[in-house]
Design brief:
This protein has 380 residues and is an alpha+beta fold. Helices cover 26% and strands 28% of the residues. The N terminus is likely disordered.
Length: 380
């Protein structure tokens, strides 16, 4: 009888955990009897493209990170990522007295584990130069060893161009992260030369908790791809309190034709990306708009309220069919002034019956450093 009671209590406890994690994936127990599940980040297709959750800037003990590569695989699986890159520094290896310097080793150690977890592993590295010009990530790289480590301007360029000759996708990391250094947050000649020679393909507009809005303008004006990355060195759980709402690692949302390495690369080259950090989205206007339109749905009016003075007000339901977060503030039209669309939720809005549309600024988005996405909601 006692054994049945214990089993019953265990099942009730497990059921309670499963209910709390409803919608986040299948629950099971690891060897330490801890509940483990994979988050299921819900984002609808955008114009026929699958939206893939990607982090292309992470570190391990093979440079200045604090974890072994397999931890990055476990974290990525639990957090619902589709693709991951280990981008350990080439020129900066502070653990070299304890960990053998091997620039390709992190990727080699992860190939089998990520494949089992159905995570796309993209080979990458971080080219670590003085600021300016700063650091550059190269993904879809070949051999990560043998890079020039001198610090002259010519050697900086040679290091980046080595990655370019391997047909890598190269993006400029966290411009402005050292604000006290002259030229750290400017469109300098070095970067302009790389861009003109097609050796620079994107810029990290969001790095961890820092949004570099000036870099968003550069991406738009120079035709570069918008990137968002965690640049994680410690445990993700150390830097991000995922028990809180809207807290997750910063990542790049990639709108890909297919969930393959080739599909991701094609989308990166085409610039179909949006950077996502906490409640915020940053990207080129056409991409942010397409993402918003795929996620947000306004239903026809379901009720007409007649007031004592004879005026009529129509009521509508607006839905967020995603795990993204949107805040809207009315700019044109007489209707509900502020709308907060929490992940996978709905809100009510109202407007005079004669109103044909409402225009909102989506204040949780940036399509330029000084501009939010503006959307017109037609009222039916």
């Amino acid at each position: 009888m006692r054994n049945f009671l214990l089993i019953g209590l265990f099942l009730v406890s497990t059921l309670a955990i499963a209910q709390r994690n409803n919608g986040k994936g299948m629950l099971y127990l690891d060897e330490n009897r801890r509940p483990i599940y994979r988050e299921n980040i819900m984002i609808p297709e955008v114009n026929g493209y699958e939206v893939l959750k990607c982090d292309f800037h992470t570190h391990t003990v093979f440079s200045d990170g604090h974890v072994w590569p397999n931890v990055r695989n476990q974290e990525a699986w639990e957090e619902g990522l589709d693709a991951l890159a280990i981008t350990d520094h080439i020129e900066y290896t502070p653990h070299k007295d304890d960990v053998k310097v091997a620039h390709n080793r992190g990727y080699e150690l992860l190939k089998e584990g990520t494949a089992k977890n159905n995570i796309i592993l993209v080979k990458g590295t971080e080219i670590t130069r003085n600021t300016p010009p700063g650091h550059f990530n190269a993904i879809y790289i070949g051999d990560a060893s043998g890079y020039i480590e001198g610090r002259s301007n010519e050697q900086d360029r040679a290091a980046v161009m080595k990655a370019a000759t391997q047909n890598s996708f190269i993006f400029w990391n966290h411009p402005g992260w050292q604000p006290g250094i002259e030229g750290s947050y400017e469109w300098i000649d070095f970067v302009d030369d790389l861009s003109r020679s097609k050796a620079l393909h994107g810029i990290e507009v969001i790095n961890g908790f820092g949004i570099h809005l000036k870099a968003l303008d550069w991406c738009i004006d120079k035709g570069l791809t918008v990137m968002g990355s965690s640049d994680i060195h410690n445990l993700v759980a150390h830097d991000y309190d995922r028990s809180k709402e809207y807290v997750h690692r910063t990542m790049t949302l990639v709108m890909a034709k297919e969930r393959t390495p080739e599909g991701i690369r094609e989308a990166l080259d085409a610039g179909r990306t949006v950077a996502w950090a906490s409640k915020y989205l940053a990207g080129k206007e056409e991409n942010v708009r397409a993402l918003f339109n795929a996620c947000v749905e306004l239903l026809p009016s379901h009720y007409t309220e007649v007031r004592g003075n004879g005026n009529k007000t129509n009521w509508y339901e607006i839905r967020n069919n995603s795990d993204l977060y949107f805040e809207l503030e009315v700019k044109e039209g007489s209707g509900t002034k502020r709308v907060v669309l929490y992940p996978r939720s709905a809100q009510l809005i109202s407007a005079p019956a004669a109103t044909t549309s409402l225009t909102y600024d989506v204040t949780s988005t940036y399509v330029r450093s000084d501009k939010h996405l503006s959307v017109e909601l037609p009222l039916r």
